[in-house]
Amino acid sequence: MPNPSQPSPAQSSPWVLLSLVVLIGLNLRPFLTAPGPLIARIAADTGLGYGGIALLTLLPMLLMGLGAFLVPGLQARIGTRRGMLSALLLLMLGSLLRLWSANGISLIFTAALCGAGVAFVQAAFPGIIKQGFPHKVAAVTGLYSAMIMGGGAVGAQLAPVLAHGGQDWRPALAWLALPATAALLLAWRVLADGKAARPDKALVSRLLRRPRSWQLMACFGLVNGGYSSMVAWLAPYMQAQGWSVAQSGSLVAIMALAQAASALLLPILASRGRDRRPWLGLTMAMQAVGFGGLAFLPSTLPLLWIILGGAGLGGCFALSLVTALDHLPRPEEAGALAALMQGGGFLIAGIAPLAVALLQAWSGSFVEGWLMHLAWVAIAALLATRFDPAGYAAAMGSDEPPGLVSKGAFPSTSD
Question: Which letter does DSSP use for residue 175 in this model?
Answer without folding.
Answer: T
